[in-house]
């Protein structure tokens, strides 16, 4: 049978788009000697602070102060590196597990946890902090990131969007649509897949037969990069280069960071039903904080004073978070209808009136009961 007509040709050369066979690493290699000491110390401070943030937020769920908390313990290197790779004018698009990335970018920890507390749909002003609302539906933040990045480029704004997603999110249609649009439009956006091994209880092998998730980039015409997600300087370097490339008009990049979710999916999950304790312990030996401490110690940067100041700073953050999260917020039930549309629909107005009437009737019923008490 004859082949396609001569006019057919590959759109792009696939070779430069392919990821490396093994995850990119820096710590423990000769490349680590070239790392800036200030960057190493900054990453370490954020990692320690992030671990303490995770443990404190998890404790708040047990105390009834959070409805749910999806911990990123073990994944802190991905979260911190994503935040530090961006410029102030850039945008971060987090998923529900990425509150630490938002905090590392400068968001107040209480505001980052407000959604998970159940007080507001979003506890912060996205425009003010350049952080999109935490996204609970899987991967729906990815097309949003592409749209914002594409619009920014059309307006001439020097802006890059960085979107975070888990390995489970790569099985969603939104993932396909976002990558396809991003590549066709050459939008200035970076996709960071945190491959932590499981989509709740579903292991990666039951989601995809691809050599790696980074290989999926080739099918869309963008570079795929594979990195050790527990190696904070490696993740930071790969993301920084991807952000620079996007800002200079090089288009999108898909980065897969191989990491591990040490804690359960959320406080409502029993992870022992689908993975072994030996598997978890094997990953604890590759802990991102321990990897950084080895490097800092080898270079004489982890002094007693620096380590103590880092721990003290993390404890102060946790204490402040704990104190403020134990204060009951003043909530207005009518806010349920205030921020749905710019102008309330007829149905929303009717629902708001009905709620007010029910609250007024409840208050009127409670007053006689209170007066009757001795």
Q: What attributes characterize this protein structure?
A:
374 residues, alpha/beta, Rossmann fold, 2 domains, 5-stranded parallel beta sheet, two-stranded antiparallel sheet, 13 helices, 8% strand, globular, oxidoreductase activity, acting on the aldehyde or oxo group of donors, disulfide as acceptor, Pyruvate dehydrogenase (Acetyl-transferring) E1 component subunit alpha, pyruvate
Summarize the structure in words.
The protein has two domains: 15-325, Rossmann fold (3-Layer(aba) Sandwich); 335-372. It is 45% helix and 8% strand. It is built from 13 helices and seven strands. It has helices at 37-62, 76-84, 99-104, 109-117, 126-129, 141-155, 173-185, 232-247, 277-284, 288-298, 304-325, 335-338, 346-372, and strands spanning 91-93, 161-166, 189-195, 198-199, 202-203, 224-228, 253-258. A five-stranded parallel beta sheet has the order 1-2-3-7-6, sandwiched between helices. A two-stranded antiparallel sheet has the order 4-5. The mean pLDDT is 94.
Category by helix and strand content = alpha/beta
Give the count of structural domains.
2
Mean pLDDT: 94
The proportion of residues in beta strands is 5-15%
Helix count, per DSSP?
A: 13
* Run of helices and strands: HHEHHHHEHEEEEHEHHHHH
Q: CATH homologous superfamily of the largest domain?
A: Thiamin diphosphate (ThDP)-binding fold, Pyr/PP domains
CATH architecture verdict of the largest domain: 3-Layer(aba) Sandwich
Radius of gyration: 23 Å
Region (Disordered): 351-374
GO molecular function: magnesium ion binding; oxidoreductase activity, acting on the aldehyde or oxo group of donors, disulfide as acceptor
Domain Dehydrogenase E1 component: 56-330
GO biological process, one term: branched-chain amino acid catabolic process
